[in-house]
Amino acid sequence: MSPTSQPSGPGAPGSPGSPGSDSTTVQDYVKVIYSATEWQDKPVTMSALAARLQVANSSVTEMVRKLVGLGLARHEPYSPVELTPSGLRLALSMVRRHRLLETYLVWELGYGWDEVHDEAELLEHTVSDMLIERMSQRLGHPVRDPHGDPIPAADGTVQQPDAHLIGLLDDGHRGTVARISDANPDLLRYLDSEQLKLDTAVEVVGHKPFGGALTVRVGSDPGREIDLGDESAAAVWVSTVGSHPGCNLEQ
Amino acid sequence: MSPTSQPSGPGAPGSPGSPGSDSTTVQDYVKVIYSATEWQDKPVTMSALAARLQVANSSVTEMVRKLVGLGLARHEPYSPVELTPSGLRLALSMVRRHRLLETYLVWELGYGWDEVHDEAELLEHTVSDMLIERMSQRLGHPVRDPHGDPIPAADGTVQQPDAHLIGLLDDGHRGTVARISDANPDLLRYLDSEQLKLDTAVEVVGHKPFGGALTVRVGSDPGREIDLGDESAAAVWVSTVGSHPGCNLEQ
DNA sequence: TTATAGATTTAGGTATGCCGAAATTTCGCA
DNA sequence: TGCGAAATTTCGGCATACCTAAATCTATAA
Ligand SMILES: [Mn+2]
Ligand SMILES: [Mn+2]
Ligand SMILES: [Mn+2]
Ligand SMILES: [Mn+2]
Predict the structure, then answer these.
(1) Chain B residues whose C-beta sits inside 8 Å of any chain A C-beta
(2) How many domains does chain A have?
């Protein structure tokens, strides 16, 4: 995060799990700690946080110390970080904001799904609870964002879809695209150009040898076959509805 | 402004008069310097800025020094502050953002005109140029905000309505409400309850003695008469269309 | 079992912005 | 013309958040 300064968002300090009086930096750290274990459950290390937040390791050490002081995180020296219940509530509130904003930008203002992440990353800290709820209302209270990520309800409830990373599925497995990581806009544009969107039917046709590309049939019936590289295969989740046996779900 | 910190908004540093890489603090100072002379032209003093921004005089001295360094303002010691052409461009860009946001919140998300100011005050620093232009497009490129304040065009053009403070008009003067200061939400709610809205026809019926209240006929034909106190009379501007003679327009 | 590479924390410093108190300057009025 | 009140600036400090370099700890691999 850049060092320039600004007031933190509105919202009463009291409302349960709302951003309240936390700085935008605290909000981002907590949100990143949460989302690091959303689609895989390796515990979050300090250096993983540093990498995601694009700051030095020492900065993470300092901020995590602060989060612990605020009662938002637990941390033993030289160990991974965990959220407290209070930190989890804040994180869910931020995630709700982020994903509702993305959804609003796509459906109400004609943004592409590759254009919304950065805008939401900033707005999430600024928008009031009232604005968020009005947007949710206007959208008919959606439960997932344009990338398939679940939108936590205002009360903190989340319904995580039962999906698996396509790169870990065995040949012959089929299902529909349930989620695509929005980390890389270029990748989103590429997948879009290949007709691989949310809810598209897909089937794992085969693996190229030596950890190479993954061949996937896209679309219903005959479909088209495309090859996904490592990065693509690590960004697409497939719902296990009507799944075949033999899925490597450990790790 | 509170001391918590956050990245400043997006937008290329280059685009003419766009927020670019200026901190939200710089953006607010420049905007306040601009709007201080928008409806009256006393030069802006340091203490006036401090009062509007709710910071100490010494803080203003420091920030103004910085604005001068950035080429956004001119300032001789112990004198009022002025914007440079570059500062004016930035200010107009911020004002456009603020007013377009207010307008969007009212027309697209059902906000009341008394609820939008604080929300816009924060969002103006965070929203991208792209989002602003999409909102403008969605609204049909409005030229004034819910309070009657003109919305500068993307190229910096402003069409300031020809209006006068109702408190300075002589008895018998009539016209339509062209602008109501949004500084005080309570006042906005009061005026709203009295049917005194934008474009409402009004006539100055009389002045109570000793600088007291102003009696105003509201609405067309018979209309209703209401008494406006000092604060109200200093917040309502009336368009001079079909004006009668005798308007105290000096000062 | 013990080096030692890698992860993490500590130490020392920078940049923003803001504050109160203490100078300093200006300007109206006696 | 000169005095003092008001406005403005200077000075010393604080809080946040980040960084680099230098410890320090942990865990793996001889
Ligand atoms: Mn963010
Ligand atoms: Mn998303
Ligand atoms: Mn503002
Ligand atoms: Mn307004």
Answers:
(1) 1-10, 23-25, 105, 108-111, 115, 118-119, 122-123, 125-128, 130-131, 134-135, 138
(2) 2
